[in-house]
Amino acid sequence: MLFDLSDDHRLIQETVRDFARNEVAPVAEELDREKRFPYEIVAKLGELGLMGIPFPEEYGGAGGDSLAYTLAVEELTRVDSSVAITMCAHTSLGTQPIYLFGTEEQKQEYLPDLCAGRRLGAFGLTEPEAGSDAGNTKTRARLEDGDWVIDGAKQFITNAGTDISGHVAITAATGPGANGQPEISNLIVPTGTEGYEQGEPYRKMGWNASDTRPLTFTGARVPETNLLGPRGAGFKQFLHILDIGRIGVAAMGVGLAQGALDQALAYAKERRAFGKPISKFQAIQAKLADMATEIEAARLLTYKAAFLKDQGRNFTLTAAQAKLKTGRLAVRATEEAVQIHGGYGYIEEYPVCRYYRDAKILTIGEGTDEVQQMVIARALGA
Ligand SMILES: Cc1cc2nc3c(=O)[nH]c(=O)nc-3n(C[C@H](O)[C@H](O)[C@H](O)COP(=O)(O)OP(=O)(O)OC[C@H]3O[C@@H](n4cnc5c(N)ncnc54)[C@H](O)[C@@H]3O)c2cc1C
What SS3 state is found at 376? Predict the structure, then answer.
């Protein structure tokens, strides 16, 4: 069993670490405060080949594997979650469905712009009445004169409403299926399609510089050829996409917890009380030691999920375990980091304040903790 990263993996880790420190850290607080989408950073990520890490070079991707992608997401989140989720949702959720299920024509049409970061991809699964119960899709698509005509609504969708949003891949009921369940298919809906509207951005607890909106479809028409993969395969497809997405979100949990530890350790060494740095108090040392230990365990689990995927092995269980473990860790670690900062941790100029707000979504998005427990229990045969 080898625990060392290859030279290629180390290179991407260092490249993204430097980028996050030099380009993201100086503007992260301002972007969050102004709730401003990081267009300039996305453009630079595109130039560095970081908006299409796990896709083949023939489509403009970087030809990296899941571990390379995991390392990049971790390093970005260590500094800022809004930038990280923009890249992560774009890659795991927006671009993957086209790469995995698209025809050669669809790949040629969409992937080069997506991989270059000229266009952003989004994935519309969640609906007002279909979150954890994502199969309860109420959005309908019917075939009419060679077009799919779509009616319905999606909720909490990342990356669909920016100036560079290129498409949203949505699930829609395309007919009656077996056992009274609808037949679900995936469709590509390009931005600008008549009848496809992006609502106002939500006012969120965190991820303030990322784009999250409700979407509506009112007689929105897309060509029949915008179907992704076989008709009726949508349910299976989105489960697979969520499995992959969980590795990315788990990497966000590791990165956010590590970022919280970085900040807490540095602060504890500087802040003095009772005549010495607070890092010399055992109570503070215990917090830092627990954080570092939990982070290392969570990191290994997350890398293992990526490793299994890269080996072509089943990674559903490990990805769900990694997602469950890291979401909870991020919440706990950011809270401890705020505690170590005392009153300053409650003040927005200190990154841990933002980290604390950014952490909670990691136990909810991409499947809640309770959904991960269901996936894990199912894999155990319970
Ligand atoms: C900022 C943000 C960005 C997002 N981005 C996207 C995106 O890009 N694309 C997208 O499709 N979605 C996105 N989502 C949606 C997200 O994935 C859902 O919010 C999440 O899956 C939970 O669904 P829900 O909100 O409908 O909660 P619900 O499913 O209504 O769950 C409510 C509670 O009930 C629990 N629960 C539900 N069913 C069970 C059960 N069987 N057993 C035990 N407990 C259960 C849940 O765990 C939860 O605690 C985003 C959400 C947010 C907040």
Answer: helix
DSSP string, 262-283: HHHHHHHHH-EETTEEGGGSHH
Nearest Cα neighbor of 313 from 243, 260, 218, 363 is 243
CA–CA distance, 77 with 68 (Å, rounded to integer): 14
Looking at ligand 1, which atom is closest to the CA of residue 126? 11
Contact of 205 with 357, CB cutoff 8 Å: yes
Express each pLDDT in 26-71 by its tens digit.
999 999 999 999 999 999 999 999 999 999 999 999 999 999 999 9
How far apart CA 121 and CA 101 sit, in angstroms, is 15
* 168-177 residues labelled b (16+ CB within 10 A) or e (exposed): bbbbbbbeee
* Rounded distance between C-alpha atoms, residue 172 and residue 135, angstroms: 10
CA-closest candidate to residue 179, choices 127, 235, 238: 235
Look up the pTM and report it: 0.97
Distance 148 CA to ligand 1 centre (A): 27
Take atom 27 of ligand 1 and give the residue whose Cα is closest: 131
Token pair 């991809």 is found at: 121
